[in-house]
Design a protein that fits this description.
The protein is of the alpha/beta class. The protein has two domains: 132 residues, Quinone Oxidoreductase, Chain A, domain 1; 140 residues, 3-Layer(aba) Sandwich (Rossmann fold), CATH 3.40.50.720. It is built from ten helices and 15 strands.
Length: 319
């Protein structure tokens, strides 16, 4: 799938492209599945500008079918997965070998394609950006989404109490079944008032927000003094500019806008994060819920479902 101009889902074009042979440090990967993520929408619409034309998709899993000069970390036949490098909406692709991690036999390709970006993002959020500990109470927006369900389960396994916002009663039940102790249906409930009630006015050490414009400022009211606001997505649109003095007024708050790239920049960080993710999934503490599957050529339909908030859990494109 290629994008020649930014715009709606209709700009995703199903085309034949020559993959070529892997260069030094590269691998040719035959993909079994690719993940669908909201960042793909940001790339497609131009919110996060890319050089045109481009192949979207930042998450996938498959089998190595060729290696370039100097590649020693993987070999043809290895099962591998990645989260980060663009170009995932393809049957085969070239990718830098140092961006791949070997996939344990216990984890299926579909599961890997659904969890590498989202699972590694969850690891970044609750293990690195703010280390969630037993006894913490946290707020997770979009708790029934791909990252949200993983964060809820993982935080619950760590002994935290999880408050999560969702749009429907069905998504509330899904979140509850995955470790969210207090689902809040934001279409009829005030999540700020619910946080105040649940914490008896103590508020929270951290809020994880992938929604952006619609939730950002009110999320600041959920934080206790010196709490941390983690803004990691914009599904409702980018956050409006605001004076930094608001952070002081609301309790000397911290604000961060993390990206996974900066938390897996070194090979050691990438391997350590992936190993912890694989362990928590293999143990059963975190279950990756692939709720929707689309054929790769139907990626535009998948984008419409994602933007229409008609998805829950993870969505993959099958090759």
């Amino acid at each position: 799938m290629r994008v020649h101009q930014t715009g709606g889902p209709e700009v995703l074009q199903w085309e034949e492209v020559e993959v070529g042979e892997p260069g030094p440090g590269q691998v040719r990967l035959k993909q079994e599945a690719a993940g669908l993520n909201y960042i793909d929408v940001y790339h497609r619409t131009g919110l996060y500008p890319q050089q045109l034309p481009f192949i979207p998709g930042v998450e996938g899993a498959g089998v190595v079918v060729g290696v370039g000069a100097g590649v020693t970390s993987v070999q043809p036949g290895d099962r591998v997965a990645y989260g980060g490098p663009m170009g995932g909406y393809a049957e085969e692709r070239l990718i830098d070998a140092d961006k791949l991690v070997k996939l344990p036999e216990a984890i299926a390709f579909d599961t890997a394609a659904a969890m590498m970006l989202q699972g590694m993002t969850a690891h970044m959020l609750i293990r690195s950006v703010h280390e969630v500990k037993a006894g913490d109470t946290i707020l997770v927006h979009a708790a029934a989404g791909g990252v949200g369900l993983i964060v809820c389960q993982w935080a619950n396994a760590l002994g935290a109490k999880v408050i999560g916002t969702v749009s429907t009663d069905e998504k509330a039940e899904l979140a509850r079944a995955h470790g969210c102790h207090h689902p809040v249906v934001y279409t009829r409930e005030d999540f700020v008032a619910e946080v105040d009630r649940i914490t008896n006015g103590a508020k929270l050490p951290v809020v994880y927000d992938s929604v952006g414009k619609d939730t950002f400022l009110r999320s600041l009211d959920c934080l206790r003094p010196r709490g941390i606001m983690v803004s990691y997505g914009n599904s409702s649109g980018p956050v409006d500019p605001f004076p930094p003095g608001i952070l002081a007024q609301k309790g000397s708050l911290f604000l961060t806008r993390p990206t996974l790239y900066h938390y897996t920049a070194s090979r050691a960080e990438l391997e350590a994060a992936a190993a912890e993710l694989f362990d928590v999934v293999a143990s059963g503490k975190v279950k990756i819920e692939v709720k929707q599957r689309f054929a790769l050529k139907d990626a535009a339909e998948a984008h419409r479902a994602l933007e229409g908030r008609k998805t829950s859990g993870s969505t993959i494109l099958t090759v």
